[in-house]
Design brief:
The chain is an alpha+beta fold. The protein contains two helices and four strands. The chain has one domain: Glutaredoxin, CATH 3.40.30.10. The protein has a four-stranded mixed sheet, covered by helices on one side. Helix 1 packs across helix 2. It binds FE2/S2 (inorganic) cluster (FES). The site of FE2/S2 (inorganic) cluster (FES) has 11 residues, from helix 1.
C-alpha cells in the first residue's frame, strides 16, 4: 500500500479535549479501525494540548482541522469521507 493511501488522524489528548469528547472518540475510532481491518490505512496519533481548549475537542483528519465535534459517529463519518476521497484520488492516477 502506498504511503499516500494512508490517512493520518490526530486527536488532542490534552485534558480538556480528552474530557470533552476525544476520550470516547479515541476508543470508538480504535474499534472502527479494528472492526473494518483499517490498521494499514489509518494512522492514529495523539498530541498534547494545542492551547485552544475553548474550541475543543480538536481533531485533525488528513491535515484538516476540526473543532467542537464531541460526537464520535460524526468523527467516524468524516474519517470515512476522507478515506473515500483518498480512494477517488488514487483512482485518477
Ligand atoms: S486540551 Fe486540546 S487544545 Fe487544550
Amino acid at each position: 500500500m502506498a504511503e499516500n493511501d494512508r490517512l493520518k488522524v490526530e486527536l488532542c489528548m490534552g485534558s480538556s479535549c480528552f474530557a470533552r469528547g476525544n476520550s470516547g472518540t479515541l476508543s470508538d475510532l480504535e474499534e472502527y479501525i479494528n472492526e473494518n481491518g483499517l490498521e494499514d490505512r489509518i494512522e492514529l496519533e495523539g498530541h498534547l494540548c494545542l492551547g485552544k481548549c475553548n474550541s475543543g475537542p480538536h481533531i485533525t483528519i488528513g491535515g484538516k482541522e476540526f473543532s467542537g465535534i464531541s460526537d464520535s459517529s460524526c468523527v467516524i463519518d468524516l474519517v470515512k469521507k476522507a478515506l473515500e476521497e483518498i480512494d477517488a484520488e488514487s483512482d485518477l492516477h
